[in-house]
Specification:
The chain has about 475 residues and is of the alpha/beta class. It has one domain: Glycosidases (TIM Barrel). About 40% of the residues lie in helices and about 15% in strands. It contains 15 helices and 14 strands. The strands form 3 sheets. It has an 8-stranded parallel sheet with strand order 5-4-3-2-1-12-11-7. Helix 7 packs parallel to helix 9 and helix 13 runs parallel beside helix 14. The chain is globular, with a radius of gyration of 21 Å. The protein binds 6-O-phosphono-beta-D-galactopyranose. 6-O-phosphono-beta-D-galactopyranose binds next to loops. Belongs to the glycosyl hydrolase 1 family. It comes from Vibrio aerogenes CECT 7868. It holds the Pfam family Glyco_hydro_1.
Length: about 475
């Protein structure tokens, strides 16, 4: 659908950027921080762990000053649960509390809106030892942690995100380092964990509104439009199933407080229905998000899947779908190119995704991740000419403007990532940042910060609140 005139970005549009605690902070065991499941997980061979990351913990002032120079209106970051509660619950760690107080104050001083993710993959290891998300009590520990954050930081933080990419923790938790399931009944246990996380999220939203009536809170899943591989009805049906399992299961619960029917049918077929205790659904129904935050990297193409679909030796990740026998099968999209890590690039699919979410839930949207992972090259004078990243972001921003013109209420864009950090499973040579960090996979070098070409480009875009748009 071509648009003759494009709507402008609202003046209040939150041009931002994102990070997460475990991928950027480092200082993994400093100042009383307890270990998380990520700290205790085995990283794939050949890539760095998260112990030092970009050492933002010690560089946060310099980093925030750079973000201010970039012109950011918002910064989306996460709190490491184990800096606040080293064991997940119990005794509070005052040095951890102070770190986020300082970070938030620093942001506010520069007029940057803090957007705080409560939980981004790094479950306290101590809670994991007590059963992790399989144990209902983890939902209570989460609620207590949330209540603590609301009371500590709610005077300055207006935007809260509950759980980053719960759907990816469920579908790709083995790769991300978050998954531990019962060996006898793994799928049932996984979706029991999912139920407890949904319950935890509902409790967080209710508490937020009780404690901070002016604050806004929302979920932050990874959402992608799903294309059928062909008009063959079986392909369309499989694509519809995958949408339900990957996308709508999570958002239907967050917004409507009910399980998606197709997802439930899928779980029933696998004998994986979660145990739902009396009162759970009333809590889910009472919890209401104020907006939907979502991460978008690309779309997926889905075909029908034979019952004997052989998955041996095939692994997908957040953006590469392999499939499930008899349910859905991921395919390449012949109309799209891939990035250096095999992720397809689909700016138009971004517009479709925004429309689909808005049509379904009619809540304001904020994009909390979108970006291009690449092997950046540092020139002799230290410059990084990441024109490919500028192209990627420009094309996606164009599609936000097109979606706004379509009538979708998008109020912010926080690309991944503000600064170079460590990828979930592909190390720190897979870079995303506007700010380069001088380190290599196994040599942390000087950790010096420098501005990439994309930094100057985004700075000018934010300043002008506009971008050149093509249909
Ligand atoms: C999302 C995660 C982020 C981030 C991003 C890029 O799924 O929320 O934590 O890492 O993907 O993925 P990767 O690091 O695997 O390149």
């Amino acid at each position: 659908m071509n648009q003759s005139t494009l709507s402008q970005f609202p003046r209040s549009f939150l041009w931002g950027a994102s990070t997460s605690a475990y991928q950027v902070e480092g200082a993994w065991n400093e100042d009383g921080k307890g270990p998380s499941v990520i700290d205790m997980s085995q990283v794939p061979e050949g890539v760095t762990d998260f112990k030092v990351a970009s050492d933002h913990y010690h560089h946060y002032k310099e980093d925030v000053a750079l973000m201010a120079e970039l012109g950011l209106k918002a910064y989306r970051f996460s709190v490491a649960w184990t800096r606040i509660f080293p064991k997940g619950d119990g005794e509070i760690n005052h040095k951890g509390v102070a770190f986020y107080n300082n970070l938030i104050n620093e942001l506010i001083q520069y007029g940057i809106e803090p957007i705080l993710t409560i939980y981004h993959f790094d479950l306290p290891y101590s809670l994991q030892q007590r059963g992790g998300w399989s144990n209902r009590e983890t939902a209570d520990a989460f609620a207590f942690y949330c209540e603590t954050l609301f009371k500590l930081y709610g005077d300055r933080v207006k935007y809260w995100l509950t759980i980053n990419e719960q759907n990816m923790m469920i579908l790709h938790g083995d790769l991300i380092g978050t998954k531990k399931v019962d060996e006898l009944n793994p799928v049932k246990d996984l979706y029991q964990q999912n139920h407890h996380m949904l319950l935890a999220q509902a409790k967080a939203m209710i508490l937020c509104h009780e404690i901070l009536p002016d604050a806004k809170i929302g979920p932050a899943p990874n959402i992608s439009a799903i294309y059928p591989a062909s008009p063959k009805p079986e392909d369309v049906l499989a694509a519809n199933s995958f949408s339900a399992i990957r996308n709508w299961l999570y958002l239907d619960m967050a917004v409507y407080g009910r399980y998606n029917a197709t997802a439930i049918s899928y779980l029933r077929a696998q004998d994986a229905l979660p145990e739902i205790l009396p009162g759970d659904m009333a809590i889910m129904a009472r919890a209401k998000p104020d907006f939907i935050a979502f991460n978008y990297y690309n779309t997926h193409v889905i075909a029908e899947s034979p019952v004997d679909f052989n998955l041996a030796g095939k692994t997908g990740d957040q953006q590469v779908t392999i499939g499930e026998a008899g349910v859905y099968k991921g395919c390449d999209n012949p109309y799209l190119v891939k990035n250096e890590f095999g992720w397809e690039i689909d700016p138009v699919g971004f517009r479709t995704t925004m429309r689909e979410i808005y049509e379904r839930y009619a809540l304001p949207l904020i994009v909390t991740e979108n970006g291009l992972g690449a092997f950046d090259k540092v020139e002799e004078d230290g410059s990084v000419y990441d024109g490919y990243r500028i192209d990627f972001l420009q094309q996606h921003i164009d599609q936000i403007q097109a979606a706004i013109t379509d009538g979708v209420d998008v109020f912010g864009y926080c690309p991944w990532s503000a600064i170079d950090l460590v990828s979930t499973h592909q190390g720190c040579s897979k870079r995303y940042g506007f700010i380069h960090v001088d380190r290599e996979e196994f040599d942390v070098k000087s950790l010096k910060r420098s501005k990439k070409a994309s930094f100057y480009w985004y700075q000018s875009l934010i300043k002008n609140n506009t971008s050149e748009v093509s249909d």
